[in-house]
Amino acid sequence: MTIVDLRKATLIGLANQRREVLAGLQALGVLHLETLSETTAATAHIGEVDADLTEAIAFLLAAPFKRRQIKDPTDFDPATVTRDALRIRETMRELEDRREALIDRIENLEPWGNFDFPDLDDLSGYKLWFYILPHYQMARVVASDLVWQVVHRDNRDAYLVVVSKTEPPEDAMPVPRVHTGSITLARLQEDLDRVEIAMEEAAIERTQLTRWIHLLLSGKADYENRLSLNRAELVVLDAGEVFAVAGWAPEDTGERLAAFASQHGLALLWEAPSAEDAPPTLLKNPPEVAAGADIVNFFQTPGYGSWDPSAVIFFSFAVFFALILSDAGYALVFTLFPLLMWRKLSRSPRGRRLGLLGLAMGLAGVVYGALVGSYFGTPPPAPFLAQVAILDVRDFDAMIRLSVFIGIIHIAVANLARAWAARGSSIALAPLGWFFLIAAGTAYWLQGEPTLVSWLSGGLGLGAVLFFSGSAPLAGAAGIGRRLFEGLKGLTDVTKAFGDVLSYLRLFALGLASASLATTFNQMAADVAERFAGIGIVFAAMLLVLGHALNFVLAVVSGVVHGLRLNLIEFYNWSISQEGYPFRAFAKKEIDPWNRS
Fold it and tell me: Where do transmembrane segments lie in this chain (predicted)?
């Protein structure tokens, strides 16, 4: 839950050591390289990982069954394996399209039966014309002079064959004719069998190729490492007989870099970042809440001099999701997804982090759902659960107060964290002033009238925001005037603070909508079951399943979207003062973990 302290490392050595040193640094994997050369534009010409290789690996990894992996590269030809994999992929796509077309064709032809067209001479020039008529239009055909025969009926249409030398005129038939084609139903079914057999053979070929996945991944990793090494050579400063490479490294890696420099006979300059430097940001979090860092880096990496909001975002996102879901039953269903997918998710660090976030969201939803006493829109099913239900989502006054109070706490924490990150500097006083202003407003809201606490807090906050929102030096009347002008400009954010706090009312509104829809579907199902005896039970069950499934999806989507919005817009705007860029270590890539069984 911290931003790792970094140091600027500069290594200087002989030019003939450059490739060896860079390879060693890549193996060490602790340095974020900085550009010292002006030739970085040439990086566009270094090359990229072969797209065909990447697509072939993805295709083989997606195979439902995999063979035991071959580790010996003696008989391995990556080009051939890649080419074969992409050929099989294209073949399977074509066969799947052909299969779907045949199935659709067979379904359309089955009502007509298995027939073959005779020669025109055998019918004395007569032809067969096919029509699908709704039953209510059959009277028009019966009253006509056409020669026809119904060959099939269903609950809506009649399948009609007209015998005529020419196509019946449009005014004689109420619907256009159907084109059945010249291929018989039996022939289509034979073609479908052949296509499905070919699909099975292609799937077997694909499974056979999966034995090379490990070597394909190894080759891809090696190639990516070579590309990374080539790019690193372009950011190195080449000064004739010597070269220099610079970058940022975590403070606790200093001894390892010093040992590396000593081993290779390099000069090492190890410096703390200066005020002019802009180091990358490396977030360090416990594994349990590391998913918060993924959210942070996805949206906006905080600056090096800021603070790490990962843990706050992790927990607040789970809480906001729970408030919007507002149902313990839905939360239990949601929790099943990360639990059932845990084995697959835990194969990679990112998947494990995502699974832990899902579990936190689900557990928070269960707890809050129990507090509001909602289980798929029904009251608590047991007495002890009823005792836990201390909140009522339909108590508008209480839920509005709760939502606003959550917004106040969230925005206040954002300002306190921003002030803490700037501690020791006058910059910290402006967010601290906003904290006191928010506290004063909250005290006035709760008390209903001004109190000594609200006056003191408001006065402190107003003064801090007014005098420390700007950066103009307090030297002379002009400097003080500029500082006050900047402070007055900063005070206009009071409307933003008010609006941001009220934005948290969406937690109440969306939670109420979710709970109301769940109750409505339950009531509709009960009415259907009561009104239609017997078959009504089936319709009621279908209504319950479809209704709750729809409400569940809407609630989950709302919880994710608006939970992220409150964290990444309202909270972020008050807590993060500077944007940074992520720390990316110059390191060798390892083979991606996957199921090798």
Answer: 312-342, 354-378, 398-417, 429-446, 452-480, 501-521, 533-557
Angle at 428 between CA 425 and CA 429, to 5 degrees: 110
At position 269, the amino acid (one-letter code) is L
The answer to whether the CB of 401 falls within 8 A of the CB of 507 is no
Q: What is the amino acid identity at position 274?
A: S
Residues 6+ apart with CB under 8 A from 379: 373, 386, 389
d(CA 392, CA 328): 14
The CA distances from residue 374 to 85, 258, 495, in Å, are 51, 60, 36
What whole-number distance in Å separates Cα of residue 334 and Cα of residue 327?
Answer: 11
Helices (H) then strands (E): counts for the chain: 21, 10
Cα Rg of the chain (Å, integer) = 35
Phi-psi region of 181 (alpha: psi -120 to 50; beta: other; left: phi over 0): left
Pairing assessment for the beta strands 127-134 and 6-14 based on DSSP bridges: unpaired
Residue 494: name the closest of 433, 423, 407, 403 by CA. Answer: 433
Q: Please tell me the predicted confidence (pLDDT) of residue 472.
A: 64
Nearest to 309 by CA among 420, 410, 417: 417
Contact 326, 367 (CB under 8 A): no
459 contacts: CB under 8 Å, gap ≥ 6: none
Biggest CA–CA distance in the chain, Å, is: 113
299 alpha carbon, distance to own chain's centre: 12
Q: How far is CA 57 from CA 71, 74, 572, 595, in A?
A: 16, 20, 39, 13
What pLDDT, on the 0 to 100 scale, is given for residue 44? 43
| 162 three-state secondary structure | strand
3-class secondary structure per residue, 25-68: HHHHCCCEEECCCCCHHHHHHCCCCCHHHHHHHHHHHCCCCCCC
Which uninterrupted H or E stretch holds 237? strand 237-239
What DSSP designation does 169 have? P
What pLDDT shows up at residue 180?
A: 86
pLDDT digits (tens, 9 = 90+) for 578-594: 889 999 999 988 766 55
Contact 147, 185 (CB under 8 A): no
How far, rounded to the nearest angstrom, does the alpha carbon of residue 530 sit from its chain's CA centroid? 43
Per the structure block, which two tokens stand in for 385?
């659960």
Residue pair 482/447 in contact (Cβ under 8 Å)? The answer is no
Report CA 247 to chain centroid distance, whole Å. 32
DSSP alpha helix (H) spans, 422-475: 429-447, 452-468
Q: CA end-to-end span of the chain, whole Å?
A: 36
The rounded distance, in Å, linking the Cα atoms of 151 and 225 is 69
Distance CA 304, CA 286 (A): 19
pLDDT tens digits along 51-68: 888 899 999 999 999 999
Q: Bridge-partner residues for 378, per DSSP?
A: 375
For residue 476, is pLDDT > 70? no
Burial class (CB in 10 A: 0-12, 13-18, 19+), 397: exposed
Residue 311: both structure tokens together: 């843990």
Which of 529, 556, 552 has the alpha carbon at shortest distance from 540? 529
